[in-house]
What we know:
Elements: E1 3-18, H1 20-24, E2 28-30, E3 33-35, E4 47-59, E5 64-69, H2 86-101, H3 109-117, H4 129-147, H5 151-158, E6 170-171, H6 180-187, E7 192-195, H7 201-205, H8 210-227, E8 234-238, H9 242-246, H10 251-265, E9 270-273, H11 281-298, E10 303-306, H12 313-322, E11 327-330, H13 338-350, E12 354-357, H14 365-378, E13 382-384, H15 392-411
Parallel strand pairs: 6-13, 7-8, 8-9, 9-10, 10-11, 11-12, 12-13
Antiparallel strand pairs: 1-4, 2-3, 4-5
Helix pairs in contact: 3-4, 4-5, 5-14, 6-8, 8-10, 11-12, 12-13, 13-14, 14-15
Amino acid sequence: MKIKDVILAPGLTGFFFDDQLAIKGGAKLDGNTYLGEPRTAGFTSVRQRGEAVSVLLVLEDGQIAHGDCAAVQYSGAGGRDPLFLAQDFLPVIKEQVVPKLVDRELGEFRSLAEEFDGLTDDEERRYHTAIRYGITQAILDGVAKSKRVTMAQVVAGEYGIEPVWKPIPVFCQTGDDRYNNADKAIIKRADVLPHGLINNVETKLGKQGEILLEYIQWLKGRVFLLGGEDYRPVLHIDVYGTIGQAFGDNQGKILDYLGRLEAAVAPLKLRIEGPVDVGHKEGQIEVLSELCRSLKTQGCGVEIVADEWCNTYEDIVEFVDAGAGDMVQIKTPDLGGINNTIKAVLYAKAKGIGAYLGGTCNETDRSAQVCVHIALATRPDQMLAKPGMGVDEGFMVVMNEMNRTLALLRGC
Length: 412
């Protein structure tokens, strides 16, 4: 089956681009925006609308395969590619990538995805991760449509995975509305929650961590009140390095605080994502490795999730090999081609490290659907409900695609 034509369309994502540097630096939340000056290159305001580009492959038989180019909420931070604006990158895709797609045979996903993920421009630079992300989604859908199977079956078949067609635990994130949206996630019985968006010491963590401690105590109460006796989700909090900020990167104080958090949520399991952010990959690996070792030595069961500076497949391999985290977030748009996401999940699992097939609230319904198929085939420990921060929408998109696909697969 060949690609007859490629059509591009600008689109919107399920959230916003946020200037993480400005927010960490004290930009004030005002309603649904932030007051302050942007500090990351490319941003014209601290918060601006999320944008995407849809890639539509017109196949020989008239079927349409679809993927969406999208980038993370905190673009330009933590070593990531810059802001992805449709008006800037749509011409690049049209002029430089589309001609390489037209008339290509959709025989195998893996080799074609690796080829397009590795493409470079006239200056020998790889294309923006968002471009590679969307193009490879469309290729996977195209191969699945040409073979008349699901995308999950294509992934399992080409990567030699013995399929186990069962649901994957889903992680809901609340955004800044961490109380009302936590209630939603609990009522909907999400497997993992709430993320919490703890990205500022003064207003969200507390100078001694007291705000977060109070929040997770409340959260535990709501789980028991609203969830019933048979509901025990994992509590997963993303703190964006603010614990390190609050305690001056003093490991003893950080360990003590994590112990207090664990005691506060017992008997629920607690994961802390990004407890520290030292500003560069080598230091991040060293600090997280030491923190994980120290927690185990002390018998503390808090699991550390690596995120910042763990962006590419190669980064993930380094973090996993160093034991820099009990779990790694595989932030799907940051890896570029989804072939890298697949490899990353499989690598982490093979090494005994938790695999979190994540991404960003700033994705689209389509990229989320494709990620569901990757998750069903590769079986990470959890996957993110996306896009958006409202719980309802992202949870619906992911759960419905998962349940539809499982129903089809079990009927095959």
